[in-house]
Amino acid sequence: MAETTVRGRVGEVEISLSTGKLAQLSDGAVDVRIGDTQVLVTATAKRSLRESVDFFPLTIDVEERTYAVGRIPGSFFRREGRASENAILADRLIDRPLRPNFAEGYRHDTHVVATVLAADLENPHDVIALNGASAALTLSPIPFEGPIGAIRLALIDGEWIPFPTYEQGEEAVFEIVVAGKRNAAGNVDINMVEAGASEHGYRLVQEGQQASDEATVAAGLELAKEYIATLIDLQLELLEKHGAPEPVKWQVVVD
Hey, which residues does 196 pair with through a beta bridge? Predict the structure, then answer.
């Protein structure tokens, strides 16, 4: 299968989505890149239904590997350790906006794995992994009612900066992660917001930077909708170029 790649710009940042080269046995696989940070996201679902299942068994795994930064474990410890705190938080960040957007009654075991292939130590991988997860599910036959776009914005000198680097995050007063999807009217509905002041936020406000008051955060949420729309369009472009998957008949559970 030929590799399919789409690219788009969110503010000053270029993001690319590719499929068709890696993990071809999964139901959907997308390689997402920003800067030199690269994450492979796969989505796979079990065809048979677990007996008497009364919940949706969705598992999200973010796999951080030392080779992503050019290091190989040596000496006595040659294996990777358990998931870090950041990986667990990224798991939850991805799970929250995805989980409510599967078809009602769908309860097949579903596994989404985001493997960090390269980390440039400048661009965080968690939010692009969320976009990659949505893209992988959109390309798959799994009944996912997406796509979903997600963006991190950092408030720096009164401006909202999309996909801030780690260095820019140090200069930010406030950060928000916003996820959303398109409604029937074509507008973006927000379905998740995660927000908080940065470590140096209080000091920066005391030094004269714009505080994260209600009006400023509301403006950031409106700006996030524009970026989310761009990310959704990018996923739909990838689906159009790659082609829709063969349909699968899934069992539906009625409580």
Answer: 175
3-class SS of residue 37: strand
Q: Which of 30, 24, 28, 21 is nearest to 45 (CA)?
A: 28
Residue with tokens 């999807």: 181
pLDDT score recorded for residue 190: 96
- End-to-end Cα, the chain, rounded Å: 40
Give the pLDDT score at 182: 95
The alpha carbon of 115 is separated from its chain's Cα centroid by a whole number of angstroms, namely 12
Dist. CA 161–CA 227, nearest whole Å: 11
| pLDDT number for residue 65 | 76
Q: In Å, how far from its chain's centre is CA 81? A: 23
Q: Which residues of the chain register pLDDT less than 50? A: none
- Estimate the crossing angle of helix 126-139 against helix 214-242, to 10 degrees: 40
Q: How many CB atoms lie within 10 A of CB 5?
A: 15
Edge-first strand listing for the sheet containing 188-197: 159-162, 149-156, 174-182, 188-197
CA 39 from chain center: how many Å? 10
Cα gap 36→34, rounded to integer Å: 6
- Alpha carbon distance 212, 203 (integer Å): 13
Task: Provide the whole-model pTM.
Answer: 0.91
What is the number of H-type helices and E-type strands within the chain? 5, 10
Q: What is the spatial distance between Cα 255 and Cα 246, in angstroms, rounded to a whole number?
A: 28
| Dist. CA 102–CA 71, nearest whole Å | 38
